Amino acid sequence: DASDDNPKLHIVYMGSLPKTQYSPTSHHLSVLQQVFDGNDATNSLIRSYKRSFNGFAAMLTHQQKEMLSQMEGVVSVFPSRKVQLH
Amino acid sequence: TTRSWDFIGFPESVKRSLAVESDVVVGVIDTGIWPESDSFNDQGFGPIPKNWKGTCAGGKNFTCNKKIIGARFYASESTRDIDGHGTHTASTVVGNNVLGASFYGLAQGTARGGVPSARIAAYKVCNESGCTNDAIMAAFDDAIADGVSILSVSLGGSNIVPFDEDPIAIGSFHAMERGILTVNCAGNNGPFPRTVSSVAPWMITVAASTIDRRFIDKVILGNGKTLIGRSINSFSSNGTKFPIAKKNGNSTKCLEDRANICECLDSHLVKGKIVLCGNRANPSYNGGHPIGSIIKEFSIGETNFITPLPSLVLSSIEYEQLKSYMNSTNIPKAEILKSETIKDTNAPTVADFSSRGPNTIVSEILKPDISAPGVDILASFSPDASPSGKTFDKRSAKYSIISGTSMSCPHVAGIAAYLKTFHPDWSPAAIKSAIMTSAKTMKVSEDDVGEYAYGSGHVNPISAIHPGLVYDISLEDYIQMLCNLGYHNQKVKLISGKNNACSKATHRSSVRNLNYPALAIDVESMTSFTIKFKRTVTNVGLANSTYKATILPNPGIKVSVVPETLSFKSLHEKHSFVVTITGDKPEQHVLTSSLLWSDGTHNVRSPIVVNVLD
Predict the structure, then answer these.
(1) What DSSP string describes B204-241?
(2) Is the CB of B137 less than 8 angstroms away from the CB of A14?
């Protein structure tokens, strides 16, 4: 909902891990800092995916989600929905 | 599992390579496991496999052993399963053989997993409030790095979403990159078309089918008439008939309409009596304590369930007979008998609830891929969980009977792990191909499109060990498919880590040429069409062999294969062929056929499905 400004948990998927030396968590924070003011980025970051692929989970508003979606290095940004046991 | 493995032709005596099997690690992404279950006892297990890179981080009150070698949690405070679902699925894939397992005497036998000597790594992604995408992503991230051999994922969304917004599609893609096949369930939104939500080609998607053991139960009315219903009722009334409540509610707290479907009950009207609950499949019994219940046939797509009281489910006709008896007497009585099992000679059939194709994201990829037992499966359970899911049901059970595509998924995961022990160097696509092309054909009801219900057919594990030919697919093939689908080069580069990922010519129509072991296509109605599919098979059977093609005829289409004969001189030799399908203004909605390659020993069958768009 574009009009909803309450932050919600989103997944920011960034694809494969770079083969060169890379510090995922600090990169994830620097990506987040581009859409946050001050230390809010650190508080927003919930989880980093850094062992088998690249990405993170963060609390984002709709506007922040839209900004991140346009950033270089980001494949997709989508809400962390609940799924069902089948 | 006291019947399902035998039913699909996978007996306890099956040939195994135990030393190799004990090095296989199956990752289960689910609600955790109950570590003290007999299914996970480590007696007789040797040291942890040398290549295992995972850890036991099971949290509070959770200890690993030589069978459970990995544990992580992303929800709640421990990998311990308090729901039962994860214990059930994990024991179906890798559980030890446990003699004398039953649910209160029902479905008694030896409970066992597909690969009982293999190890388990449990990744808990669910808690009481559900399972979340961020936890699933984390579980895949860890499981792949930990070095699991196969992943079994018995959960998923109800909606179909693009690959790059689906955590199971994302995780399974990166698993496939590292040689790990992900087995995922089709979903329980059947029997309606276009409900399958697991649609990525790099994972194997499993529909649920029945086995030849069916549960029935009986109610004996006060007039001596016996009605037969279904449900999993472990209670015995020992010959006592109980009164049937004529009304379930008549107070301001519990209005009659709600009471008639057991949404609420007035205790003074129902205490010690059997209540009738209309067509509410899952009564709440709020406010009352009946002795038992009878429910009218529940909605399409639902299944048998364990009842918290002596209960059964009747067809509409028999329910009306019961009501007629109730209205004919002042003090209606009945006895509900404990469930019993009968042989179902119609099995296997696809369960109503099992989600159906076609695949709405990539119509060229037939989904689901395969069908496996998923109805009334007995497997290990968490003693802390209520077997009926009702908090007032205080029973505790080490085994439970559940239905769902969640139950069919670990059967295929077990078979995939079993194949891995014979062919450790095979790619995920080759293992998937072996499972699909060896499948048995299945029966289907007249109003169902079989291939959209069961995919390639019913799992056939022993034939899958020696498939003869496989349709292999490399990482580069999947990358090209993403390019052909229209994913931007920059996105595909990020996903795959390959520069110039979409450097080859891309075209949407080339998606059909992904080397998938099934052929599916959409065509416009009221038009003539000629469609060509390119495929390549790899010889994994006999070095010197000749395969001939046979097409199952369908009067609505003409199918030809060029060449019709493939001669191999060595193992791992590849041959390509083209399947051409022509049709002239088809009248049916869906046209099906199949391609069979046979050398007289190996039969390699691929379904062909032409979906005529309305």
Answers:
(1) EEEEEE--SEEEEEEEEETTS-EEEEB-B-----TT--
(2) no
